[in-house]
Write a structure and sequence with these properties.
Radius of gyration: 19 Å
Number of helices: 1
Oligomer: single chain
Length: about 60
């Protein structure tokens, strides 16, 4: 999906549609929420890969 250059972007549920220039800098709280979201995403990805790996081994009958 292409995005216009300079267009405000929504990130981590923040609406920047009518943001004034002085409000576009993220606050500490926003930064922490983004970091927590990335960490949670990474943890979920790791758990899903481990589950898929176990399921594949179980189906193939190969011990770990």
């Amino acid at each position: 999906m292409s995005v216009m250059a300079g267009a405000p972007q929504a990130h981590a549920g923040i609406d920047l549609t009518n943001a004034s220039p002085e409000r576009t800098m993220p606050t500490r709280d926003t930064t922490l929420r983004v970091v927590a979201s990335i960490c949670a995403s990474d943890a979920l990805n790791h758990a899903l890969r481990a589950t898929a790996s176990r399921a594949m081994r179980a189906q193939l009958g190969t011990p770990r």
